[in-house]
Design goal:
single chain, mainly alpha, MB_O-acyltransferase
């Protein structure tokens, strides 16, 4: 495998980013109490909107902590590369979070950009041996169950894994249909883009629900959560969140378009 050659400037810049991430993690630890709410069970006394925010905060904090660990691992490889140790040992560490996880509007993109090295390991040693894309619908259940157990043998994590798989199925079906769909007019392209944004908003909502179940409320809190949101007070909040995710997805589309134009030039 070809090795990356890192300059002192590259290492210094990456190290500065890591120090800032570490500082931000410490700041979040001292100022935000998402994990305390989740672990103590105090979320049961809050509204579902508050619980939703706590769930997002818990997941965001965990992802940020993981990024700090990922980055220090890559930074150590970059430092050893300067001394040519990594070239001798054949070490090549990928960027474990090549894309901001808040800039992913579908499940496949999210999981490809989250812990990328582990994702590659799963693809190489589980997904492909299990049949690859030919048995994709079955493979995701096996792989996500393994990932849940790899984290910890806990019902909340298993429910997170199975909910994620459940939400994955319609996304894969819609993607297959979208790939076969040919846009022949500007209006058709507009409709397709709007439907894609709606699908992205639904996906983000599903991802947050799965994380909420897996990391905060557990299986026992699902009925309470759903029943509250289906009440008169909960529907406007649910609608507001969905519109927010829809607008966010459209913004992600524009970011992707800008990147494509930049690469073309």
């Amino acid at each position: 495998m070809p090795q990356n050659n890192y300059s002192v400037r590259d290492v210094s810049w990456y190290g500065s980013r890591w120090l800032f991430s570490l500082f931000l993690m410490e700041l979040m630890t001292h100022l935000f109490y998402y994990n305390a709410f989740a672990i103590s069970g105090l979320w049961k006394q809050l509204s579902p909107m508050d619980v939703f925010i706590i769930g997002y905060g818990v997941r965001g904090f965990k992802l940020h902590v993981a990024k700090v660990l990922f980055d220090v691992a890559l930074l150590s490889i970059m430092v050893t590369d300067l001394s040519e140790i990594s070239v001798i040992c054949g070490i090549e560490a990928p960027e474990n979070m090549p894309r901001c996880i808040n800039n992913c509007y579908n499940l496949e993109s999210f999981w490809k950009n989250w812990h990328a090295s582990f994702n590659k390991w799963l693809v190489r040693y589980m997904y492909i041996p299990l049949g690859g894309s030919q048995r994709k619908l079955l493979n995701i259940w096996v792989i996500f169950t393994f990932v849940a157990v790899w984290h910890d043998l806990e019902w909340k994590l298993l429910s997170w894994a199975w909910l994620t798989c459940l939400f994955f199925v319609p996304e894969m079906i819609l993607k297959s249909l979208a790939n076969a769909f040919q846009v022949e007019s500007a209006f058709g392209e507009f409709i397709f883009r709007e439907l894609s944004a709606v699908a992205g908003a639904i996906t983000i909502t599903c991802l947050m629900v799965a994380n909420l179940v897996g990391y905060v409320i557990g299986l026992s809190g699902i009925n309470w959560f759903i029943s509250w949101f289906l009440q008169k007070e909960g529907l406007p909040i649910l609608g507001g969140m969905f519109i927010t995710f829809y607008v966010g997805t459209k913004l992600m589309f524009h970011i992707d378009d800008a990147k494509k134009r930049r690469h073309q030039h």
